[in-house]
Q: What sequence folds into this?
């Protein structure tokens, strides 16, 4: 069996910067309130009717990753696209990437695991490469949150958190089993599905016909709902568990971590995990302050930025970890 390794990274975020002060003009909030609860100072929101769709941003990130990987687009054997905000209800954006990049008719898989989406997508790509089925896999995480948020005071608990953007990685074979992705670890707990949820439109509860029929301006079912305190309490526990699971699988102690790239859900969660693992500021990479929570895109954006800034070096132990809606969570242990 092979290992897989990341050989190309790229990210893209819209040019439009939305600060906390900008949000205070839309809803009853302020910079201090947002920073105290989330650590976020600003985020990127795509301009409506621009090219910055979920697939469009993913394509831009993918082009950068492909170029940095030093491969041709036709060397790609498979596409995995993670998002909760596809351009269309169906089909998913994976096939849009295949078409836009003019890649031969390879398979395209869409992953709907929200904040854990990129970790799940990396795990899928890793398994395909490990078994020898594919050699080069393009993995994308992309989100367009801003067009679906309640930008009134009613929705401020959620809408101040989320931003738009995309990140991408190229995975390929690594014959040295001591390098590359050493292991991935995935979990779910569906009993808490409605603690962080977007109910409508959904076939099971409330479809478009119901929304149009009722025409209720107070209907909140098609805006995201989050039980913030409950999510926070579960996140800090599951983050810790799944990181330790990955380290134990590879006979590593927490002191072996060179850099942790957590899903950028909330700066307070990242700081809690940093303290629990006794990691320095240089050992944890956060960029939620300027991008907000970009869900499936947050880890690939952060991973790319950390790599670009020289914070990841050959031989480093890199840990990716995520927790989010579902609940789903996971980790990836990498020897860079």
A:
């Amino acid at each position: 069996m092979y290992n897989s390794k990341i050989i190309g990274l790229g990210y893209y975020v819209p040019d439009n910067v939305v600060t906390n002060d900008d949000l205070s003009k839309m809803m009853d909030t302020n910079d201090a309130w947002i920073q105290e609860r989330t650590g976020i100072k600003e985020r990127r929101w795509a301009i409506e009717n621009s090219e910055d769709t979920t697939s469009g941003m993913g394509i831009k990130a993918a082009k950068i990753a492909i170029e940095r990987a030093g491969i041709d687009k036709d060397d790609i054997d498979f596409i995995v696209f993670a998002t909760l905000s596809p351009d269309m209800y169906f089909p998913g954006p994976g096939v849009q990437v295949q078409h836009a990049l003019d890649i031969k008719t390879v398979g395209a898989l869409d992953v709907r695991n929200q904040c854990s989406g990129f970790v799940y997508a990396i795990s899928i790509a890793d398994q395909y490469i490990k078994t020898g089925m594919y050699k080069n896999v393009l993995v994308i995480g992309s989100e367009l949150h801003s067009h679906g948020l309640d930008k009134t005071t009613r929705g401020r608990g959620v809408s101040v958190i989320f931003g738009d953007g995309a990140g991408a990685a190229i995975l390929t074979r690594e014959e040295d089993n001591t390098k590359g992705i050493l292991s991935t670890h995935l979990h779910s707990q569906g009993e808490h599905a409605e603690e962080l949820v977007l109910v409508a439109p959904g076939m099971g509860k409330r479809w478009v016909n119901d929304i149009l029929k009722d025409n209720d301006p107070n209907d909140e079912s098609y805006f995201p709902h989050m039980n913030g305190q409950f999510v926070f309490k579960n996140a800090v526990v599951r983050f810790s568990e799944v990181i330790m699971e990955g380290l134990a699988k590879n006979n590593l102690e927490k002191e072996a971590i060179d850099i942790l790239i957590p899903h950028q859900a909330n700066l307070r969660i990242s700081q809690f995990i940093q303290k629990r693992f006794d990691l320095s500021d240089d050992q944890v990479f956060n960029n939620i302050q300027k991008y907000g929570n970009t869900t499936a895109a947050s880890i690939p954006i952060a991973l790319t930025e950390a790599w670009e800034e020289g914070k990841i070096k050959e031989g480093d132990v890199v840990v990716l970890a995520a927790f989010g809606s579902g609940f789903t969570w996971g980790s990836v242990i990498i020897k860079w």
